[in-house]
From TrEMBL:
Pfam families xrefs: Por_Secre_tail (PF18962), Reprolysin_4 (PF13583)
The organism's place on the tree of life at top rank: Bacteria
Organism: Chryseobacterium indologenes (Flavobacterium indologenes)
Protein name per its UniProtKB record: T9SS C-terminal target domain-containing protein
Record-linked InterPro entries: MetalloPept_cat_dom_sf, Peptidase_M12B, Secre_tail
GO BP, sorted A to Z: proteolysis
NCBIfam families: Por_Secre_tail
Amino acid sequence: MKLKITFLSVCASFLINAQISNTNELRATHLPGTTFKLNVENFKRNVESKKKNSSKIADQSIVLTLIDGSQQEFILSENNLVNKRLKDIVTFDGYSKDRQSRIKLTLAGDKVTAMIKTAQGYFIIEPYKTQAGEYRIYNSSEMFGENFQCGTDETEFKKSLEAIGHALNVQKSVTGFPYGGQMKTFRMAVATTGEFTSSFSNQDAALAELVAMMNLINQIYESELSISFTLISKTTDKTLLFTDAATDPFTVNASFASAANSQAGFDIMNTNGTLSYADYDIGHTFNIMPGAGGSAQGQAGPQPCNSSFKARAWSQWTLSMPKSLTANLIVHEMGHQFGAWHTYNAVGGSAGSPTFCTAGWNGDSAVEPGAGSTIMAYGNNCTTPNDQTNSGNNGLNYFHAKSIDQILNTLSVYSTCFNAVAVANTPPVANAGNTAISIPKNTPFKLKGIGTDAEDTHLSYTWDQVDVASANDKGAFGSTINGVGGYSAVNSTTAPLFRSEQSTTTTERYFPKMRFVLNNQNTPPTNAAEALPLVARTMKMRFTVRDNSAVSGGADSDQVVVTVTDQGPLAVTYPNTNVTVNNDTNMNVTWDVNQTNTLKNTVNILLSTDGGDTFPYTLASDVPNNGTATVLIPFLPYTDKARIKVTAVINNYAEFFDVSNTNFTINSTCNAFPSVIVENAKVVTAIQGSGQANLNLQPQTSSADSYSSKIITFATANMSPNPLYIYNQTSTAPYQILASTSLIPYKFKVTETGSYTISYPSPDAVIMTVYKGNQVNVANFVTSNGVYSGTGTSLSYYRSFSVNLEKGVEYFMTAKNLGGTAIGASVTVSNEGPGSFFNVMDTPAGLSYTYIAINTATNTIVAQSTTADFTSLPVGTYTVQGISYTGTAANLLNKSIAELTQSKTCLQLSKSNVSLIITAALATGDIARKQIGLVPNPVKDYLHIYSDEKISHYEIYDASGRLMETNVMNNSEINFSKFKTGVYMLKLLNNKTIISQSKVIKK
């Protein structure tokens, strides 16, 4: 169970209480994340030496510990949050040395605060309050959204917001996209109450807190919307940091965050000459609340640039609040300032405030099922009288497409006083395929988009449903919770059904998630927010591509209208039980057509051997959609996890389908083994003949089928004695609560890198600890759901916890049953994340393993390599996959997978693959025309670059094609002194475009 949070008043109110009545609740003093030591002195010394120069500080380096315990170097440059450099505070933008992450960092005195954006989300680094020099890094969504509240009954707010909402309803849904080619900057006035300033003892400390907070907030707004905020001089010179609560211009209510009180205070300052309306574009008041508990509240409304309303925003919190919660609170409130209203479709509230969800519902933006999961939703709120929270991660740090629509509309119509500056970023392009498709009701479907970007930055892809709930839909959720109109969402023609989902690895989305389809749950649990429609209707699905640029966040969005017809459902009827068949024999597959042939008259029949995780084997293509087809079961290994998929491919972007309900068994003498590729990238683009086409993949050991849940049986035979390590709420180091105890140990890996949620149901009571490697010790400790109380053997635990896991790394988990789970009992442990878990097994004898390149145009294998070296491939697009097989590698070439299995070649494909795109080499004449000069060459130390072309960064490869260095081009020279004598390939690039590639000889 997660820690409990209760609410005080309206608009983004949090209260963390240490309410522990038994051992199944997490203590509020324990916060998630990884702690580490950081010596800031060297970094501070370097920065101080640069401050003597009035120009912006650049090229500063700092090494930080990441969430998984690894270290990463970041390159930093001073940013423009403040116009005039402050005495003891410097704010930075930066990126990781591998160019995979973006960072905002604040140096205040001898402490740093930072927010890192990675493919796995936003991570906060802040000082850990137990020891000097100790810091904590944690996922910023770890606790955000816990019982989130932001209700208001102020008429002016609703009038303004509704006007914006109605204006959007008559506009094209994707107006304002794409964006990212310019940064829109607002002058921000932050004022602090006397209570805020005195809580930090003095104005300098209060200013450090304020600046660090705004630097974090800029990270999200710049990444999401290409909006930035510059603090005005009257904030940074401390004019607006009031020291006396009795004389400041604000009326404070410690239990109610009032946006009206903020605007009133700014009005007073305009009248008395402290701050003129003309001096700022957007205003916000910060206050510190009394009390030792963790609490935060906020209230805000539109809109910047309007003197009467531009400071209608108040945020307040207690000193014990983690910076992630405070920053996300302010981000939410500022979203209201820019006209974004609540996106959830839920009613009720919490036990302490039973109507705040009902009061905060908005009829122009209620696009998320239940309490929602994005920035403008309510996360873990709306639990009474019905639990309307979304299961899984419901504290996502991005704006829903509907919220972006509203903000872009405000920027174009109402709040136009920003300063727009062109930046070196080309927005991405989103393509959701055909503008309209038709699918049958109550039938799973898949949508696929295409996202491209000129700079080839690290794209992320989001699918959002943007249907706004009607007044009668209000509160309709899934298949079990009726709305105001007396019907559930699945029986509505307008209610939102599907939650927002984002991926950095795929442009595809299955509706509902495949794990529900595979569990024979075409109607998933209501709180999954993945409900298929049971009636004819239309659904508007938005595909949004973000480029996550280090310069400014660019995005594009495209929409497909999905018409749900009264035909259907399409449903597989055989095999639907655990039948047993032999390979190399025929099977008669049957399915209910239910008039779906009027939508698509042919189907494909696919086979999975891993329980439906993948369907790599095509048994039949374009057979009539008449309900029956005879197919040949190929010569594949034994499996008791076979599934059949019948799919109707509408076009390259969409299909509807069904999967057989239960695993069935295929008998076989073939013993080829499954595997998982551990790749550096899902898509690799390489110049013909270059070392980039050498993927350098290592042969994979055999691995068992992946799983999303595991049954642990506490039998004596399964246990082994091990120490038990858990978190310690009084120290940063893990605590060995038991030197030796009987534990269930098991090894696992994950199919994808990312954040996973591990959980088990009530009333089971199990302590689970994860280690990197297979040895139980402090050094290998990753995380635990157990927390030591600080006395004796007293501990608390929670039934759901998150952990960042890396693909290719072997992990070791131990499970300890407490009093509630008897010896011999079993508990089902579930994992949810970007991939799934799998167990490592020994490789069977008599088999070979290699990597194959399949030409996507012909579906034939054109090359094989035991290390995935495909430098000899011609220009084209290929799928690289691992394969275990019998026979010789030569027998694999120039055949399709179907041809190999039909010829009784024993084989099994890897569960993952890499898309390899080979492009033509840059012509020598093209290089010559660009007037690139490299001197001296051969080079001993520094190579000087002369070019009439813009160069953003460079890459250096050794003679084998191995990437030796990549870095930004900050000046006209590259240091070669660190490289050994030899021949190197130097590639000069302007973002994605190759400007030059030349041989450089190192003396």
